[in-house]
Design a protein that fits this description.
By secondary structure, the protein is α/β, with parallel strands linked by helices. The chain is globular and about 70 Å long.
Length: 319
């Protein structure tokens, strides 16, 4: 795995700031304006932004220096350029998951039944950020497994990799499936509450709970640390990492213009250039190749419905 760095999207760069007296570090946790930075010697310390607002997110490479008062805290002087950033945005604010990711594991389960709308939104966000996604279907030992499999059939047809496993029932087999996916990469694990993300982290990293408590105590944030992403190394050589993210109920997409939505949905993008009109919105225009593909069974009607609902949501005026 390349050490996180060289991305697009960071507002500050070490190129425009004097960092001659700084050290390099990796952001492994955040809470409010405070972040935990791991230095190149693998030591961790609390750092604060220079201004009122913190721009650093988990996965960022930063340049930092010790506070003037000395001690075991630091100040972030610059955030290095990012190669990627996964975030969601509602009408009012953005919420970053992590930066400098190599891939996304969209972690869903047979039970609780996953939301296809949330799945679609996460995949669109990953596609638009240039982050390769993999869908993991957990709890396939449960009776609804075939129904879940059928719902994921269109995603397999689009070319998404879908991994099926039963983490609690067949732990070692599941570990053997997941380990190669994570090797040498920085991987964000994203998914709804109850899908088994915590089980995955505890399976891969038996000391994860203690590490989380240590970070929480350092930030004086108690249980609230769970509201942000956390970076965990999987190996002593620090070449593979998983980033655990909090569960989410909503996934705003307001950072994506409605006119660009179709290009981030592979099944719809496959047909969009064959429409009669170059500015076709694929909703009611005559000669729409996407609508024709739905009629031929090449695009799922549910997928078109998801697209239409999201297009209309993103087209609403923002006040």
């Amino acid at each position: 795995m390349k050490r996180p760095g060289k991305p697009s999207g960071a507002r500050r760069s070490s190129k425009s700031t004097d960092t001659s007296q700084c050290q390099s570090g990796l952001v492994v946790a955040t809470h409010g304006r405070h972040v935990v930075v791991e230095d190149d010697a693998s030591e961790r310390l609390i750092c604060h932004p220079r201004g009122k607002k913190s721009e650093a997110v988990v996965g960022d490479r930063v340049m930092w220096q010790h506070t003037l008062e000395g001690g075991d805290e630091g100040v972030i002087v610059a955030v290095e350029e990012r190669k990627s950033l996964l975030y969601r945005q509602d009408e009012w604010r953005s919420k970053s998951f992590a930066a400098n990711l190599d891939q996304l594991l969209m972690w869903i389960a047979v039970e609780p039944v996953f939301s296809e709308s949330q799945l679609t939104r996460a995949l669109i966000a990953a596609e638009s950020a240039g982050i390769p996604p993999t869908i993991v279907l957990n709890k396939i030992d449960l009776p609804g497994a075939q129904a879940a499999r059928d719902r994921l059939a269109p995603y397999r047809a689009m070319g998404y990799r879908v991994v099926e496993l039963s983490l609690k029932k067949e732990t070692e087999a599941a570990r053997a499936q997941v380990a190669p996916l994570l090797n040498g990469k920085a991987t964000l694990v994203l998914g709804p509450s109850g899908a088994g993300k915590s089980t995955l982290i505890n399976t891969l990293l038996p000391n994860a709970r203690a590490e989380t408590q240590e970070i929480s105590q350092a930030l004086n944030s108690g249980k609230h640390t769970t509201t942000s992403s956390l970076w965990y190394w999987l190996d002593d050589s620090r070449t593979s990492a998983v980033i655990d993210s909090p569960g989410f109920q909503e996934f705003g997409m307001h950072h994506i213009p409605p006119t660009e939505l179709a290009r981030w949905m592979p099944d719809i993008a496959r047909h969009m250039n064959d429409c009669r009109f170059h500015n076709c919105t694929h909703r009611q225009e005559p000669g729409c190749a996407v609508q024709a593909a739905v009629e031929r069974g090449e695009v799922s009607p549910i997928r078109l419905s998801l697209y239409t609902a999201l297009y209309e949501e993103l087209s609403q005026p923002r006040w």
